[in-house]
Amino acid sequence: MEFDKARDIFGMYVFDRRAMKERLPQHIFEALMASIEGGQKLDSAMADMVAAAMKEWALSKGATHWTHWFHPRTELTAEKHMSFMSKDENGMPIESFKGKELIQSEPDASSLPSGGIRSTFEARGYSAWDPSSPAFIMMSKKGGTLCIPSVFISYDGTPLDLKTPLLKAVDAVETRSMRLLKLFGNRGIKWAHVTVGAEQEFFLVDNPVAKDRMDLKYCGRTLLGCCPPKGQQMEDHYFGSIPSRVLSFMEDVERDLYRLGVVITTRHNEVAPCQFEFAPQFADANLACDQNQQIMDIMRKMAKRHDFQLLLHEKPFAGLNGSGKHVNFSIMDSEGRNLLMPSSNHRKNIQFLMFLSAFLLGASKFHSLFRASIASPGNIHRLGGNEAPPAIMSAYLGTTLTNILEAVEKGLPDDMPAQALIDLGMNKLPSVMADNSDRNRTAPIAFTGNKFEFRAPGASQSIAGPLTMVLAAWAWGLEKMGDMIESKIGELDVIDAAIESIRFAASESRNFRFEGNAYSMEWQEEAKRRGLTVTNTTPEALALFLLPENRELLSRLNIMTEREIIAYYEIRIEQYIKTVEIELGILRNMVWEGVLPAISKQILMESAALASLPEENRKEAVSWNAYIARLGTLKNKLLSASDKLEGLRERLRTMEMEEQSAAITNEGLPLCEYIRNLCDTAESILAGDNLPYPTYTKILSIS
Asked: Where in the chain is the domain with CATH 3.30.590.10?
């Protein structure tokens, strides 16, 4: 079978710069590039020409519709398809797409979460073209849809999406990065861009088996089920040979992604059975966010074609590793230099330490925002397990960088110039950093040679939320460092002034830097002594958004207003409540429709078998009687627990939001765990023919 070469199909469904340059007049192309790179607005005449070129390109690829593709606060994407086809005044078919439609649309979308920012009677919402991320076509069996990346705002201009705050956070970091670069004499640099690569973990299970599990179908995770006798104990799945059906799925996903200009640099088996990972090539932050959504969307569609069920939940299976989304980030300048890459040049190494220290400075002060950003219904089951970072935010740098920061913090003798410090330590950075920076897999944030890696986001999350908060803290650190350097220039040269600012950052971030085992109980106590935030539940973590210092940071950087922060918090709490409420209902149904009847059937079967024995043998069947009694006890406990569960669901309907989140966390989750343990005990002693649902052993075996 012949396959197209990847480079021949790469980007064929993306209206990228190459496609723009081929189809637009030179002056229009240059104006569009100025809009993309400098934020300049296109006038209506130019927008009409761009729209016409985009339409003709899309039609040539087979597209029939267009949509403003945006990121509401559901963690997913949204789209309202509009046809290119219309009729002229004579009733003849005509394909049209105008500049005003490209620039702005009104999808209504009144049912998307707004956190009380707008009422249904104020349902108007506007999507506006984001030219910094290229339009692309999502193909279908009978055509395709031109997707135009957009922001989504309310009628009064209030953002209702995840992209708008991200764009503002990116701008905050990039403008402050340029300021520092200019202070260091980098006059020729035109821009500094945040670059991101988000690793995506996921599970694939056979759809014919998974469809018989109501919990997998509606919740994306198992609400009951025993661990299999052979799970991940042997560690033989990790980096093992990829199963042929999975490899075929991966190849098809990659081929579709090539057409969208997305490169998957690595694919491999993860730790748990049926768990895998994709890692894309780095891209500018905004584009990386869009591409991660494209990756998840194509994976969902392709899984159905391969008769798999894709599971992006953070903890689909109890007792097995969960799935995260490691967000790697750095900054690159217009000359192609990674600003988090150590250098053999002493001046560049000071610059590197300055950008690294600025992140640590901001992260140490606003680490609670990081914790809030990754709080979700699914991540509560993953964080703290040995497969994921703990709920306490900290950063790991490795021995070399830690020693250098400590040396800077201690200061230099009066007779030792700054250059000597560089000669003593920093000339070692290029050769040892790759080997010395990522040995602690327990750290939520780690420096991994030339970037930071934020390991705590969950697999189902949009990276926009966590990335926004990370960049907000970094922007604050960059601003603080810039202020310190500027205040010292005159009495010190820029290198000495920078070292002073690095010394300050090293001292201030000491509480946030941790080289030890972040899973240990000792770290929990030490973290509290250091003043770090320790929150183990989703509602506690989400409440950190509302801390005065966090609200002040986001509003001062113009990333979110006070009103938006409160709305964002309320949306996240509401999502948590609704998700767990659904799980409570599904668990109740699974118990009543499957587990309780299975126990009754087993009791009847065993009782009938016991009754068939001669009377003298029945008296001796002590263990047999005890087994039947054990089944009866299990059923009684399940009935009692189910009554409590139903009572809680009834009470939740009468509560306000804050009460609901507290009741769900303090009563609902422990009750679900108790019911699960009872169901799992029943599963372990029921006959195979009486088991109501496919077991882990069946689910985690790809045929």
From this structure: 200-323
Distance CA 638, CA 250 (A): 42
Question: Where, residue-wise, is CATH 1.20.120.1560 in the chain?
Answer: 577-699
pLDDT of res. 414: 47
**CB burial class (10 A; 0-12, 13-18, 19+) of residue 344?**
exposed
Cα gap 418→404, rounded to integer Å: 13
Q: How many CB atoms lie within 10 A of CB 487?
A: 13
Under the banding of pLDDT at 50, 70 and 90, the label for residue 110 is low
Residues 59 and 84 sit within 8 Å (Cβ to Cβ): yes
The mean per-residue pLDDT over the stretch 559-565 comes to: 95
pLDDT of 393 > 90? The answer is yes
Q: To which H or E segment does residue 387 belong?
A: none
- Alpha-carbon distance of 215 to 223, in angstroms, equals 6
Superfamily of domain covering 6-161: Glutamine synthetase, N-terminal domain (3.10.20.70)
Greatest Cα pair distance, the chain, in angstroms, is: 104
Q: Rounded distance, CA 665 to CA 647, Å?
A: 15
Tell which residue, 455, 179, 138, has the closest CA to residue 326. Answer: 455
Rounded alpha-carbon distances, angstroms, from residue 519 to 235, 389, 514, 662 = 20, 8, 12, 26
> Encoding tokens for residue 257?
């992604």
Mean pLDDT of 303-309: 97
What is the SS3 assignment for 253?
A: helix
CB atoms within 10 A of CB 61: 17
Query: Read out DSSP for 528-540?
Result: HHHT-----SHHH
527 pLDDT more than 60: yes
Which of the pair, 618 or 140, is modelled with greater confidence?
140
Has residue 412 got a pLDDT over 60? no
Alpha carbon distance 651, 231 (integer Å): 38
d(CA 656, CA 61): 51
CA dihedral sign of residues 425, 428, 429, 432: negative
What local confidence, expressed as pLDDT, does residue 419 receive? 46
**CATH code of the region 200-323:** 3.30.590.10
pLDDT of residue 606: 93
Residue where the block lists tokens 């591409």: 291
**What is the pLDDT at residue 39?**
65
pLDDT at 232: 75
Q: Quote the tokens at residue 496.
A: 């000495």
Q: Is the distance from CB of 145 to CB of 64 less than 8 angstroms? A: yes
For residue 105, give the 3-state DSSP assignment: strand
The number of helices, as runs of H, and strands, as runs of E, in the chain is: 26, 19
On whether the CB atoms of residues 286 and 132 are closer than 8 A, the answer is yes
Phi, psi dihedral angles at 96 (to 5 degrees): -140, 155
325 vs 230, more confident: 325
Q: Which residue has the tokens 């109980």?
A: 521
DSSP state of 166: H
Q: Which two tokens stand for residue 11?
A: 């980007």
Amino acid at 588: R
Q: Packing angle between helix 669-685 and helix 562-590, nearest 10 degrees?
A: 30
Percent of the chain with pLDDT strictly greater than 90:
73
Residue with tokens 């009066």: 414
Q: Per-residue pLDDT for 111 more than 60?
A: yes
DSSP-assigned states of every residue in 574-640: HHHHHHHHHHHHHHHHHIIIIIHHHHHHHHHHHHHHHHTS-HHHHHH-HHHHHHHHHHHHHHHHHHH
The CATH number of domain 577-699, selected from 2.60.15.10, 1.20.120.1560, 3.30.420.40, 3.30.70.360: 1.20.120.1560
Gap between the Cα atoms of 100 and 68, Å rounded = 12
| Bridge pairing between strands 143-154 and 14-15 | unpaired
For the chain, give every residue range classified as CATH 3.10.20.70. Answer: 6-161
